[in-house]
Design goal:
This protein has 407 residues and is α+β, with helices and mostly antiparallel strands. The protein folds into three domains: 128 residues, no CATH class; 112 residues, DNA polymerase, Y-family, little finger domain (Dna Ligase, domain 1), CATH 3.30.1490.100; 93 residues, no CATH class. 26% of the residues lie in helices and 31% in strands. It contains ten helices and 16 strands. A six-stranded antiparallel β-barrel has the order 11-12-13-14-15-16. A four-stranded antiparallel beta sheet has the order 5-8-6-7. Strands 1-2 form a two-stranded antiparallel sheet. A hairpin with a 4-residue loop joins strand 14 and strand 15. It is flat.
Amino acid sequence: MSPLVALDPPDGLFLEALGASHLFGGEARMLDGLVTRLARAGVTARAALADTAGAAHALARFGSAPTHVTPPHAHADALAPLPVAALRIPPAEAAGLARLGIATIADLLALPRASVGRRVGLSLLKQLDQALGRVGEPLGFLPHPETRAATLRLAEPVAHAEALHALIDRLVPLMCQKLAQEGLGARRLDLLFQRLDGSIAAVRAGTAAPSREVAHLSRLLHLLVEGVDPGFGVEAATLACPLAAPLPPEQQGADAAPDLAQTVDRLTARLGAGAVFRLAPRAAAFPEASVARAAPLAAVGGGWPAQLPRPTRLVEPPERVDAIAMLPDRPPAVFVWRGRRHRIRAADGPERMHGEWWRNAADEGRVRDYFLVEDDEGARFWLFRRGDGEDPTTGDFSWHLHGLFGG
């Protein structure tokens, strides 16, 4: 996390990184790691490190590589091959310079400074000087949010588990008092134990809903602190709340509804953040993609149309069956699944589903015809045929079992 962050419109950020690169294995590895993590999150990014904001902007947006590290005092050489548009000038001004034969910053640097000022104005020279570090460029850094934290320093270091639990019991009320004064509830808590050797042991607790209940937050931290290694001893402990949300006072009584959020928090603390979720309907063409994971307390809505019955259990992936049916739109008269023959006595369908051609070009033209069928023993199945039964380009007309009703 950078201590100083400024906006670089329309889609950039300036980050102060002085003295931080050694934590990531050097400047180049720091930039590569930053771009890689953003790519994993679905964000395409470029990054550059330089002594001036103007040079960093130019190299990040116009450099030949996704990441670039400029050695100190080497701005002129790094900027020279870049187009003059890298100096943050309007496109019309860059086009005008190109008509004069000034396509790159090297072309601009080769001209007498006085003639450049007379012909294209002093604003271009200012941008050039800022990029080269000849004049300063003040940045409007975003205000740093105040950190909510409570710290206890010990007269003597402690190394046993009971003492760590006792620190939690002292820190949590202090934090909850701070949160109550601001009308907030904790969404994330970081508990940091400073060891004698200078290292830090940390645990993080998250909440499904804002909370400042001492007993609940203490219980979460007690669960997480069991795996903390105090080393040769802990000399200080800090409880920080980096993420909070508004939490107005509530009237509590005997008839109050149980707090599901607390149950979710305890399960998450024991099982891990990814193990607790709920299923939510998702708009999708085919049933296997119509369910998605959602946060445990997220509001979900929608779902399958009520007039279209759906099986209680999907077979994933759908299993191919041998079926006898008349084309193009008749249900199977009989099908064989897992070596067992099922004779159909009743059926409903077809219900046609089309592939998501707007998301995947390979889905264009794909068709499934679904049938709800019941065999002569009363078992009900959800079958589909690939293709519309007439055009082979819509599917190979094979049959598959996709769901079971009632078991």
